[in-house]
Amino acid sequence: MKFRRLIAAVVFFFPVPCPAASKEIVELQRDVAQLQDQVRTLQSTLDTKMATLTTQVQQAADAATRTATALAGLQGGIQEQLREQGKTVSGPVANLSSKIDDLTTAFQQVQNGMADVTTRLANLEQQMKDLSNQVRTINTPAAAPPSPGGMASSSGTSGVPPVDGGTLYANADRDRLGGKKDLALQEYQQYLQYFADGALAPNAQFWIGYIYYAQGDYDNALKAFDEVLVRFSPNAKTPDAYLWKGTTLVKLGQRTAGAKEFHQVIKLYPSSEAATKAKAQLKQLGLSPSAARKH
What we know:
The protein has nine helices and no strands. The protein is mostly helical.
């Protein structure tokens, strides 16, 4: 705009030359005319480009609007699909959880069944040993009469067992489960008296401790559980002996010593049922089962 005013001023002050005008004025007017043409051309080019740019900007804005609309629709579709899938999956997940619980219960029943089978096999083994001993006794010549003071048997006990070891242990189990704890206690002790090296000796020793514990005789219970761990090599009742020794120590007010036994069973028998119960005992004491690694 300023340039145009400058041109108009030049034309005003320098009118069309008369025949006497100088050559410089003519050339100046020619240059001004050329500048005016260039300005008009530049303005036309600028207008064209601005129109093109405006069109492109509008197109870009329209494309952005369409993209935003498409994204909003896509997001809504995805959310709807997720909701539908959540409805579809929640049912099977609940059924799977129920099946896992059923399998856990069934596995526990299998474990209990295996424990019963183990006990029966041990009974059978003991009966076989008893039968073998009886056969050897029959084939052995009669021994000389004992001295008046009597003689101990080879196992360190005197006298003859009232029944075979398997029957004696089975009777003790039956009386314990039937609530006749005093009678069961005597029968377990009798089993250990005559069959100290029998296959069921660790079990008998453990149940002696268990009965003492149930009767509130924690001192004798502690001694009995300790016997399972010290007198016998690791056996099926070793994890339970650690667990109940720890429980007995807690009852006696020895929390630290009891926790040590819980940690021990977790460390040595991490997959056992006794280890699971030991972890629960530690939580009741406000302790962490992971601390078992320090012992």
